[in-house]
Design brief:
The chain is an alpha/beta fold. The protein has 9 helices and 10 strands. It has helices at about 45-50, 75, 85-95, 110-120, 140-145, 160-165, 170-185, 215-230, 255-265, and strands at about 35-40, 55-60, 80-85, 105, 130, 150-155, 190-195, 195-210, 235, 270-275. Bound molecules: iron/sulfur cluster (SF4). Iron/sulfur cluster binds near residues 9, 10, 16 and 25.
Length: about 290
């Protein structure tokens, strides 16, 4: 009988159709969970997620995109990081979860199958965040919804052309839009109040990172959000930092950010977060 890990991999829209225990696809990872870094008490997520405790941030190795401006080149190109068996991952989460506001799974898509097995064993006591680049299939979103409480999709581009140019992904927008729709369908926003602070226990926050020289893309992304997810939380990020290897070789300007925020206002999007302009600083890039 064929094992689950011996299926041809179609976890993400790349549909590489490789047997992950035998070879690697676009994400450059095999079937075992590979973690580049675990950061405890990580407080750089939105305040309703991080709280004062911070999240347990788990940065996975590999990625199903190849963003030319990626801040985490060393890990996102795969093949590095510590390997965890499903049971070792269960132990990691079980030991650390209670000290944190949530378990933050960062770029986890290509490990969806072993993570699903792990969370079947974990006695989950805090919310699980699926911190994704949004290049997902709706089927995978349905599968991971069994153990995920909060979806944190980065809605990068409202254009397949830009997806190809910057992330080697010719159908980014065509896949990301239905994937985010499915996330919103799966999780209504539910808050709790702890120590006078509003905390998200279940829901969706749609993120967007403003790219230098591409204000129109940001305006188009906001138009898509206003049209398709008008009531959902949005988080606009100004923290773009050049990585020295990208076609995008500068930070965003105050004028660019102002145009994006003006459009946000014009569309009446008020639910969510806007990063201060000063956040465009390299200190926001975790070191690996
Ligand atoms: S998860 Fe990796 S191997 Fe599987 S389809 Fe996506 S990129 Fe390809």
């Amino acid at each position: 009988m064929q094992k689950a890990t011996e299926k041809l991999c179609e976890i993400c829209p790349r549909k590489c159709r490789v047997i992950r225990s035998q070879s690697r696809g676009f994400c450059n990872e095999n079937e075992q969970i590979a973690i580049a870094k675990v950061m405890e008490h990580f407080t750089w997520e939105e305040p309703c997620l991080s709280t004062e405790k911070g999240v347990l941030a788990i940065f996975f190795s590999g990625c199903n995109l190849k963003c030319d401006y990626c801040q985490n080149h060393e890990i996102s190109r795969g093949g590095v990081g510590k390997i965890y068996s499903v049971d070792e991952f269960v132990k990691l989460v079980e030991e650390k979860q209670d000290k944190h506001s949530a378990i933050d799974l960062i770029t986890p898509t290509h490990f969806s199958q072993p993570l699903q097995l792990a969370f079947e064993k974990i006695d989950k006591r805090v919310p699980v965040i699926w911190n994704t680049n949004s290049y997902e299939t709706t089927k995978n979103i349905q599968n991971v919804s069994k153990f995920v409480d909060i979806f944190l999709p980065d809605f990068k581009y409202a254009s397949n052309k830009l997806g190809q140019k910057f992330s080697a992904c010719p159908d980014y927008f065509s896949q990301a839009l239905p994937a985010i729709c499915e996330m919103c369908r799966q999780k209504k926003d539910l808050f709790a109040e702890e120590n006078g602070q509003k905390i998200l226990k279940q829901g969706v926050i749609i993120r967007h990172l403003v790219l230098p020289g591409h204000v129109q893309n940001s305006l188009d992304v906001l138009d898509q959000i206003a049209e398709n997810f008008p009531s959902r939380m949005v988080s606009i990020m100004s923290q773009f930092t050049p990585n020295g290897k990208s076609l995008l070789d500068r930070k965003i300007s105050p004028a660019e950010y102002k145009l994006v925020l003006h459009h946000l206002d014009k569309l009446g999007i008020q639910n969510g977060y806007v990063q201060s302009f000063e956040s465009a600083d390299a200190c926001f890039v975790p070191e690996f």
